[in-house]
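ligand=S-adenosylmethionine
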Amino acid sequence: MLHLTPRLEAVADTVEPCECVADIGTDHAYVPIRLLQAGKASRAIAVDIHKQPLENARRSIVRFGLENRIELRLSNGMQNLRAGESQAFVVAGMGGEQIAEMIEATPWLRKTGVQLVLQPMTHCEDVRRALRKNGFSLTSEKTVAEGKRIYLIISAHHSDDVQMPVSPGFDYVGALRPQEVETDRLFLLNTLRRLQVKAEALHGKDETAVYRLEAVIQEVSDVCR
Ligand SMILES: C[S@@+](CC[C@H](N)C(=O)[O-])C[C@H]1O[C@@H](n2cnc3c(N)ncnc32)[C@H](O)[C@@H]1O
């Protein structure tokens, strides 16, 4: 069995059983390999925008004898995937802005039953905003510590339910449970520090933005208390 780091282990754990999983920005293809080994998916599509990562993926796939079950595909985001090919989509280890753009650029993703497993390295609020605006609800969120960092993993499903209006801090807090989970609390305290630095930098330059940020800061600090 392939050994995964805690971050990728948590990503793989979050994927629900499905026929085919697509891993966008796969690089070494560790996540699809693990999902097939664990019997969570029968097939996988390992996607990357660059040829060298796909070559890394090919080597790992051959090492584990999964050539007949994992397809390699060169694609920018989900552009070269087709609706219905996969039921679960993983995007891990990329910036939140980039993940948000992929969600926006792929209207066929907005289909009941599709699971998105997203692990943004930055700007998690952009990912939640894109999910919310495109009719996805947050099914679960978890944080995992690896080395000195804490990573966020979001699971989302499309839903036809009308989205409720959200509070100013929603996109920063999401479904995290800082009162119960210590890594959730530490993750949100980092978010809080980032927001405070941003608000300080904007003082005297854009008071409207500062006012908006202060409402977010208040909400994030309240949930961490
Ligand atoms: C930092 S690696 C992450 C690898 C793996 N998903 C992980 O979490 O360990 C990012 C990978 O995403 C690929 N990538 C970057 N932008 C992409 C895009 N728009 N579409 C598909 N792949 C992309 C890169 O080539 C690289 O292999």
